[in-house]
Amino acid sequence: MDKVIMAQNLTLAYSNNETIINQINFSVDSGSFVFITGASGSGKSTLLKSIFGALKPKQGSLIVGGVELKGVSSSKLNFLRRHIGIVFQDYKLVKEWSIEKNIMLPLIINGYDKSVTQNQVETLLKHVRLKHQAGKYPLELSGGEQQRVAMARALAHNPILILADEPTGNLDDYSSQLIWNLLEGANSQLKTTVIVVTHHIPESLGVEYKHFHIEYGSIHEVN
Hints:
This protein is an alpha/beta fold. 33% of the residues lie in helices and 27% in strands. A 6-stranded mixed beta sheet has the order 6-7-8-3-9-10, with helices on both faces. A 4-stranded antiparallel beta sheet has the order 2-1-4-5, with helices on one face. Strand 9 and strand 10 (218-222) form a beta hairpin. Helix 3 (99-109) runs parallel beside helix 5 (143-155) and helix 4 (114-127) packs across helix 5. The model has no long low-confidence stretch (mean pLDDT 92).
């Protein structure tokens, strides 16, 4: 099976040079569902940032979608990001844009045709149960609704990889279940690779998954 992510002796640190992740080795198969757990401050979100290219490796190798991220050029990184969907803990929606336009963003960036864009956005609004809110703005919605918009945006351009940072951390049960259903569907139906950073793995997940745990700068697979 193809590897969508390969890390070898990967070390990650911020500008103060305090090492967060220290010489880890792991890989993620294409089309798999992966959970990354660990205590607060263990480096879960740091690792996710590096997979997205927001934090370059200090040492070692990190290959995502065939692109080596150590010393990657901005044009190559932008190309890679066009194939990644991201769900942030704090949504990161454009507050001045309607819900509909927020979901359109990755489709616009990827140069999708207008009619394809419109159809895709309508389909996703139905999936996240927000068709009736399409013209509203992010701050007019609840936190759970905003996260559902963020989820729709991450799925809009049919990415090969979805990265989700605590996607249900602050959500009500209804929104949480919708998010998990969408992530499961993307994985099982579209064969999208899904990586979720979380404190809590849901008990009833309808797909097989791998579980990596980060502790003291190291990572190990939990069986």
